[in-house]
Amino acid sequence: MSNDTDDIPNIAELRREIDELDNNLLKLIARRLQLAGQVRKAKSGVRVWRPSREHSLVKDLAEATDETPPELVARIWAELMSASLALQGPMQLHISLEGDALQNWSTVRDRFGAALPTISYPTTSAALAAAYAEEEGVAVVPAPGGMQRWWTSLCAGGAMEDMHILAGLPRVGPDDWPQAVAVATADILPSGDDMTLIGLTNPAAVLDAELSVHRRAEAGDFILLSVDGFISPDGPEITTIQASDKTAKIIGTFANALNREAQ
Asked: Domain tally for the chain?
């Protein structure tokens, strides 16, 4: 007759294995940070923050296992990447506290971790201006829509038209439109699962480009459309749109949230 106690794990042995894994993880993290410290030299002028590559990595890791929730994968790598970016520096987050300040801080921490230096501002315009003044500055501000009109400054003729919306926050969630976005002067690059943002004054101009679009916001003469997929700022699609609307401009691209529900 089998003894049920034979199936009970040995707690001392389990703890020993956990301690061994923790020590190995710590060694691997230390090695990762050592390599991160050398990355800045190897980049030779390339911007420190590359959100498209960052998201591709987290997405691949989250999809590589069914046993670890994507929220946990995203949070762990947010801290690892935050520590790595802080070593590579200089990169600073400029955070708008408009709306629910506590929720804003929580959303930023989930995406960017805790190692990067941060400054908060009472208004979105102040956060954008501060980030714009720094080569590696990143502003985290409320997503376009509703009463938010700041995104028009990124449109053609705007005061900050060389800035771009490059990330949506949170990284994991069911929504197809983010709560907040990260804005910087870094290049627009694809992650492999993106939406592209176009600011323009004549929405009918997108018809000839045969794109799947969604209207996201309106402010003054400008309309913000999102397009499924990545469109290069100098690609044929935007050229076709500009033939009918010279104000049309790609103002950003960001990766779709993990676990996003299909529209």
From this structure: 1
Instruction: For helices 70-88 and 51-63, give the axis angle rounded to 10 degrees.
Output: 150
Res 43: pLDDT: 63
**What's the pLDDT tens digit per position in 41-51?**
766 666 789 99
Q: Is residue 189 part of a domain?
A: yes
Domain extent for 200 = 29-37+47-255
pLDDT confidence tier of residue 263, bands split at 50, 70 and 90: very low
User: Would strands 249-255 and 194-200 be described as parallel, antiparallel, or unpaired?
Assistant: antiparallel
Within-domain flag for 82: yes
pLDDT tens digits, one per residue of 35-76: 887 876 766 666 789 999 999 999 999 999 888 999 999 999
Confidence at residue 35, expressed as pLDDT on a 0 to 100 scale: 86
pTM of the model: 0.90
Q: How many CA atoms lie within 13 A of 253 on its CB side?
A: 24
Q: How many whole angstroms separate alpha carbon 91 and alpha carbon 83? A: 11
Q: What is the DSSP letter of 90?
A: -
Helix or strand run (H / E) with residue 85: helix 70-88
| Residue of 202, 249, 198 lying closest to 221 (CA atoms) | 202
Classified as helix, coil or strand, 151 is helix
112-122 pLDDT per residue, tens: 999 999 999 99
At 66 the pLDDT is: 85
State the burial class of residue 202 (Cβ atoms within 10 Å of its Cβ: 0-12, 13-18, 19+).
Answer: middle
Query: Looking at the domain assignment, is residue 20 inside a domain?
Result: no
Q: pLDDT value at position 6?
A: 66
CB neighbour list of residue 155: distance below 8 Å, 6 or more residues apart? 161, 199, 200, 222, 247, 249, 251
